[in-house]
Amino acid sequence: MAGILNRTLIVPPILDHHAVALGSCPKFRVQSPKEIRLSVWDHVIELIRSGRYVSMADVIDISSLLSSSLVRAIDFRVFVSLWCGLDMTVACSNELDSNQSMVDSLKQCGSLLSGLDGNIDRCLFAVDEDCRTTVWMYQNDDVDGALDSFQPDEQLKKKKKISFVRRRKDVYKTLGPGSEADTATVLAFGSLFTAPYKGSELYIDIKKAPGDPRIKSLLEKIEFLPFVPEIINSGKQFSVQTIKAPFLCAQLRLLDGQFKNHWKATFSSLKQKLDSLRQASSLPIHIFVMTDLPQGNWTGTYLGDLAKDSTNFKLYFLREEDLLVKETEKKLALAGHGLRFGSLPGSKDAVANLEKHCAPNKLPDVLLFLEEIVCSCASIGFVGTAGSTIAETIEVMRKFGSCSSHTQTAL
Fold it and tell me: Which end of the chain has fewer CB atoms at under 10 Å, N or C?
């Protein structure tokens, strides 16, 4: 969206799981963009105050996008320090609670950026279209303004008292040059999350840009964005130095939501894969296990059976307390990739100040990312849990050769 509209992307932090309720678009049970923006603001300030702020760009490598000038970006903390005119080093300290004027200023700036007071001429434009009303497109004039194929059904309309109608809109025509939004310095969305549902994308349906080579190139690059080198190197190191053999990865999601009801199917697909490997491979078969089921609860499950059968199977897994995990967390915190880019006047001084005073006092959680890298390195196969977005992510990483990239690995 930033590339199409020629705007600077403000890169946000990783939010705590379920800290901000985005809702479920297929059920039209969604918070308004204004509510989302305000709750995100409050949560981000809490992350800064508690020393747990981790930028998405600390974990995901966006350097290729910036170096190729396909998009401009700035860290959210740098943006806030410049836009709100606030000394963010105070917000990063324990002094914030006693500094009432700073607290008030943060709330006021958050209220403005969330659009609680509406749009502000040449300053802020708050986008109020969300996935209940809009599917954003680009360069598809034939259906601009047309009804989308997915609409709330009659039963849902009556039950939820819904009056929404979903239309397809061109993002450039609606928010680009000549529009009311174009005159505003800041363009604020709510959530930009999208996913396919019943043959339609829920919010953004932009997969090609035949008339715009720059956006076409950008779309190709963002199909897969790798982790930063610190994460990739550690995952590869575990594969080479700890497992030391061709291995299978089993990603078994067993406890969360719908997955706790599908153990039989999840284990069945793994057993089927292992049965075929036993006939074709030398024993024992090396398996990296990635699961949310604590090891103490494996007894009586297929995982427990595998762990006991040391003749045929050798199991590996990573834990939060492992030295490799802790060392990677420290490397990631020291690297501070998220603050290393900026494209606004005066941002260099703001970055230097933030680097000095706003280093996180709690190390970032990297276990999940490391597990995904190890799974991308599994040379004799991958078995993922049906319906798991983590499994889908690993499949994409394997497709794009995340493990065989040319990243320098310290072994």
Answer: C
